[in-house]
């Protein structure tokens, strides 16, 4: 299992409010995470950084995860802890009022992957040469699509595309979606912020993943493609390769 992480400010934003990383627990198991912060001033940066740093600390101190039930319980408990920490920080610091962050993370076990998300940062898997979006955006336009009020094509250009219905840190309690899939035939796992998924189509994602060589080349080229298409937002990507035996990268948590 090899990994790659990259975050990029993009071509327009002055600050990078995204964060993420790949971390190992005491048993050498992998946690991947992407967080896309939002809020006034630089509060989005604070929210995403606090989230990633908290999960990094929790995971690095965690014991071995042996079952999907254990993984799901661990995620639920720690999402609640992080949400509470963000919420209290925002009400205690005026400059961080209303801050929040999306969250998508995955515990990668040899036999299963447990995925959790809040907001519109996404998780995809590549399996049998097909790309599948595992998460479902907690956004206004996605709800409109689900209820048949607009088409998926209309959603791409909807003026309220960025309105989120769920994020981490803005409320005392948060609902997180958690699911577990087996690793059977999974070739790649991709986590990303909407700075990538809003710019690069599913077809392009799959094409780069299948044809661009190393994980570093794949991830770097995808970020470059999002910037080529405008780069209006911060762009963050985590890739996990479940197939290859050679090591391309280790623990990446710096920005």
Automatic annotation (TrEMBL):
Signal peptide: none
Domain of life: Bacteria
UniProt domain PPM-type phosphatase: residue ranges: 2-242
Pfam assignment, any one: PP2C_2
InterPro entries per record: PP2C, PPM-type-like_dom_sf, PPM-type_phosphatase-like_dom
The protein's name: Stp1/IreP family PP2C-type Ser/Thr phosphatase
Annotated organism of origin: Bacillus salitolerans
């Amino acid at each position: 299992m090899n990994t790659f992480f990259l975050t990029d400010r993009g071509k327009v934003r002055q600050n990078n409010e995204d964060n993420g990383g790949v971390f190992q627990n005491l048993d050498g198991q992998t946690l991947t995470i992407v967080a896309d912060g939002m809020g006034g001033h630089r509060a989005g940066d604070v929210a995403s950084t606090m989230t990633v740093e908290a999960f990094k600390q929790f995971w690095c101190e965690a014991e071995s995860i042996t079952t999907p039930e254990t993984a799901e319980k661990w995620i639920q408990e720690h999402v609640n802890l992080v949400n509470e920490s963000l919420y209290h920080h925002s009400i205690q610091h005026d400059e961080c009022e209303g801050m929040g962050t999306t969250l998508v993370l995955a515990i990668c076990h040899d036999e299963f992957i447990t995925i959790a998300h809040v907001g519109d940062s996404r998780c995809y898997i590549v399996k049998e040469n097909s790309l599948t979006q595992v998460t479902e955006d907690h956004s206004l336009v996605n709800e409109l699509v689900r209820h048949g009020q607009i088409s998926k094509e209309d959603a791409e250009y909807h003026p309220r595309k960025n309105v989120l219905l769920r994020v981490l840190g803005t409320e005392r309690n948060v609902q997180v979606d958690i699911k577990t899939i087996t690793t059977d035939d999974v070739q790649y796992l991709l986590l990303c912020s909407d700075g990538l998924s809003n710019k690069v189509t599913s077809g392009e994602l799959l094409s780069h993943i299948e044809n661009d060589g190393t994980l570093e080349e794949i991830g770097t080229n995808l970020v470059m493609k999002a910037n080529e298409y405008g780069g209006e937002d911060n762009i963050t990507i985590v890739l996990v390769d479940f197939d290859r035996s050679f090591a391309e990268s280790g623990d990446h948590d710096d920005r």
